[in-house]
Design goal:
By secondary structure, the protein is mostly helical. 79% of the residues lie in helices and 5% in strands. It has 12 helices and 2 strands. It has a two-stranded antiparallel ribbon with strand order 1-2. The protein is elongated.
Length: 288
């Protein structure tokens, strides 16, 4: 069994991309247009024309042209023939494809995290106004826009941690980040629906209390997952995990949930830094 190992700047091993079987290798590689671009690059590095390559693989030129253009996905046998002719390790290609995909997702995630952090501040303002001022149609639209944007950015933010959990083989981080996505999306959706309903303030507060308990439990789980990543990702992971655990505990009390909002903002900021750290580590390895 073989794999590719990434190394961070401290000399620690990054997660290993373990390639378990031929089928899994092919599943990872057989994706267009990256596959066609990779074959084109390898052929050009070998200074081979398309005509020369097809002679080595018993293909026709039109088939190779369509593969390189990303129009068709070759069969397993054809793909292996191409890589064998190009004298290139197919597992190395798999590793590059996986890393590039991870880099793209992590880049989007840390940017989305920064956007969510800013929107979190706006959320505090609109939630305060909702209870202190008379609600107008204009305010309802602003409130809805803030909540929707916050929800979308948070989903992309958590996808980053799902990716980190997958790469580091941390099932707890992957599962808890998925639960965080789902729970906050439901909460924000409820906020939007409730502002257009005839719900009384008492009913709204009671529902928010139940939400705080639900979210608090998931938040603690997510915090534990982050804290456990400290051995691989350092102090930033432990700090973010600690703030998440504290936030979750405050949410569980319900009456101190408003304090949990502020500690959660601190956790979010640390998590943006953490995702950016993962993004730069993998990017540097890819460019070496």
């Amino acid at each position: 069994m073989s794999g590719l190992s990434l190394h961070n700047t401290l000399g620690e091993d990054f997660p290993t991309f373990t390639l378990l079987s031929n089928h899994e290798i092919m599943e990872a590689v057989l994706k267009q247009p990256e596959l066609g671009q990779t074959i084109t690059r390898l052929r050009q590095e070998k200074q081979l024309t398309q005509e020369e390559l097809v002679e080595m693989c018993n293909l026709n030129v039109r088939t190779l042209q369509r593969i390189e253009a990303g129009e068709v996905t070759p069969r397993d046998y054809t793909l292996r023939s191409l890589f064998n002719a190009l004298e290139y390790d197919i597992e190395a290609v798999v590793g590059k494809v996986q890393r590039r995909s991870a880099i793209g997702r992590l880049q989007i995630a840390w940017i989305a995290g920064g956007v969510y952090f800013i929107l979190g501040l706006f959320e505090l303002v609109v939630d305060y106004i909702r209870f202190e001022e008379e609600i107008t149609v204009y305010f309802s639209l602003i409130y809805t826009a803030v909540k929707i944007l916050a929800g979308v950015s948070f989903v992309f933010f958590m996808i980053g941690f799902f990716e980190v959990g997958k790469q580091f083989k941390s099932s707890l981080l992957s599962i808890s980040s998925f639960l965080m996505m789902g729970s906050l999306s439901v909460i924000l959706l409820y906020d939007v629906i409730s502002i257009f309903s005839d719900m009384t303030s008492e009913e709204f507060i009671m529902t928010k209390g139940a939400e705080a308990i639900l979210f608090g439990g998931i938040d603690i789980l997510f915090g534990i997952a982050l804290f456990r990543m400290g051995d691989r990702l350092g102090v930033s992971a432990r700090a973010a995990g600690t703030f998440e655990i504290i936030s979750g505990a405050l949410f569980l009390t319900v009456i101190l949930a408003f304090l949990g909002t502020f500690t959660l903002l601190a956790a979010n900021l640390l998590e943006v830094v953490l995702l950016y750290k993962c993004y730069t580590m993998i990017s540097e390895e890819e460019n070496m």
